[in-house]
Here is the input.
Amino acid sequence: MSNSSEMNSKLNFRDFSLLLALVAICGFFGWMAPEFLGPRNLSNLMVELSLNATLAMGMLLIILPGHIDLSVGSGLALLGGIASVLTTKLGYPAPFGLSVGLIAGVLIWYAKSWLIVHERIPAFIVTLAGLLVYRGLFWLVINNETVPVVSGGQTNLYSLLSSYYLSPLTGYVLATLVTLALVASFWLSRKQTPDSETSFLKFFVGAQATFLFVIIANQHRGIPLPALIFGIVCLATYVLTQHTSMGRHLYAIGGNAEAALVSGIPVQRVVMTAFALMGGIVAITGFLLASYTGNSTTDLGEWMELDAVAACVIGGVSLRGGRGTVMGVLFGALIMACLINGMTLLSVSPEHKLIARGLILLAAVWMDMRANRS
Amino acid sequence: MKTMLLSAHSITKKFPGVAALREVSFDLQEGEIHALCGENGAGKSTLIKLLSGIHPHGSYEGRFEVNGSEAHFGSIADAGRAGIGVIYQELALVEEMTVAENIFLGREPVRWGGLIDWPKIFRDAAALLDRFQVTLDPAARVSSLGVGQKQLVEIVKALAKDSKILILDEPTAALAEHEVLVLLDILRDLRKRGITCIYISHKLEEVFAIADRITVLRDGSTVVTKKAAETSRSEVIKHMVGREISDLFPRRATEPGEIVFEVNDLSVIDPTTRIERLHNISFKLRAGEVLGLGGLMGAGRTELLMHLFGAWGTRHSGSIRIGERKTLACSPAERIQEGLVLASEDRRRYGLVLDHEIGFNLSLSSLNQFTHAGLINRKSEASSNRHFFDSLRIKATGLEATAGKLSGGNQQKIVLGKALMTKPRVVLLDEPTRGIDVGAKIEIYEIINRLTAEGKAVILVSSELPELIGMSDRILMLHEGRIGGEFTRAEANQEKLMAAAMGQQHVELV
Here is the structure.
């Protein structure tokens, strides 16, 4: 099968160049600021990556069918803020506050998608409006104050979201389980596709990466809880996009919405479900970010929608829809997280950081457009 | 003898795989209205595209002469300079601009070093409208006009460029009857002013009401040019269809079973224009039967199929019955569950996700068959894909090949495979053989035979009358959204079908 191996080598080329870029970025920052590769910073990096990448997974579900969501940065602040206010100011138990935030996220995003799907208002405009409205609502909710996620000196589920670390032993047990799952999926895929060399390589690298990750995490305090939550979101997104009919439908809608409709795909329902899932992911990201920062402050989550879009585009997700993978988004988010974290370590001023983020986004979209033209 | 304003000599235009025009010759006398007639795909549009510079000089063989000297139309602008103005079926007006702005679009008069001379635009537009006796306000927004009035704006726009030759491609397709009369009057008036006109229409009443001469095209060749006064409608029809029916059509009729599909008094409104597009359509379809559905471009065949499939139009009246149950479903997803499926005419637009692999496309409508506990079983999906890939004899390197890179025939087979994988009882095929080579066509016919042998019912839409006659057990001809005639395979012939498609009740055969 010459065609399939050609396609694989193309995919590998893209993955490979992303990997090279990542190594180069890490090398550069490691050389400029040796503490970049220190256990403490790597542990921070894992948490920062988890925040960005969780959101980027949601963005993948929105961009695949050809839409976009610019409201997630404000939205996650709002949903986190609702949970903060309920927990700290009104004294409800943290699980209740978090549940309300999560349900609100799903409902708000589902309602918003109705405007996009049924009323045919472009997602760009609906979510741009959301970006402003949610930020304003957020300020109303927190009454322009800084609301901590937990009253001083205590811990609750909300604060533990970012401050809990899995014990080293739990980490190794998890890594072993992941490796076993990889072995199982390798065996299954070997039966179905004859191209076992690449899948073996993927399994091998995957298992190695998992153990490397756990070893690094254990050098500091163990796997941070956000990383585990991100891992679950990432796995769920992978299964959704690659192994369910809804995932297939997302690709088909982005590839050719008219053909998708005539093929009997409930286009509107699928897109609305994707937005509802996005609402849940925004809530989770909001909780993690507020927990990591320790409180809900007015500028929380600003510009995060753009980092999520950048992670997708860098990872090879087409803004026109129909193309993109979880693996690519993961790499894209890694690159973004390393760049931002590295710049912070080098004490790059916020002005310059903002300019750099903008230029990265522009360059990534530019590359996407060039790739589409050829 | 009058002077020849324009003549075409032995024009041959080839597209990859097919010759759209073969040795076409044609001439236009100054001041005449010359009608071009022919079936869908006879080559009328291609000829117009050569004349208007859309297919530039050099992409075809043969030569055009304007006023006796050879003309090269390298671009649309070249053709415009030679005095040729074309009015397409799809109007090219900017809806949000005024009549005057549209008339001068792209060549606005300027003054004071680049500022648009607005008073002059409106003055000149008013003068032009007046000269051609079109009563329209130059300051009216085009979006506020009716279709007929828009058509007149297009005509004035073309004439404002000093066009000597006006080409009208199906100008009355979207017009109401009284608007048609106005248009014909204006064309007669233009003839008096020495404007020459090529008039393309399916409507023979109009053609005979206005044309001085008629040229019939068939399969890319000129069949005949005659003075309108010296020929008749039935003769023109006969020339249009006079094609041999070969034994290319291996229809093996099966004994029809019970009624599986029934349409009752269906009237459907076009959702964008809000005009009723299909009127009082009723028919029945039996298991194992092929019902042919014919009609000219714009007769509503595709619209009918898309509506039956739940993908187009607002129902005004009538009902659809699939099997024993009256269906209330209104989306393709639900129709597929009820056992109805459509393979669309426009493969690239409605049929395929071109960037994705063959396998992705084949199973797209049938994923629920392979889904257990929410997950797709890739193994059973792949084996089903493999089965259809093999049995439809799709020629490609494998299921992983990208659908967009295949030939038309193979793409059509994927669209068919995707439809058939849903295990339908009724299959709607819209132009399944358009644009594919003869070998692939016969394979498609064999697939149709296999479907009816399995007891499935098929509705086959085709523009090619021989195909319709050759492959159908029964034929319905649509005419302007109505059923213009129903024929059994035995009683159908091309003249009768064409007459029904053109809304002619009786045709004396010559």
Observations:
- Residues 310 and 334 of chain B are 8 Å apart (CA to CA).
- Chain B touches chain A at residues 309, 311, 331-333, 335-336, 341-342, 344, 349-356, 360, 364-365, 367-368, 371, 374-376, 378-379, 382, 397-398, 400-401, 418, 422 (CB under 8 Å).
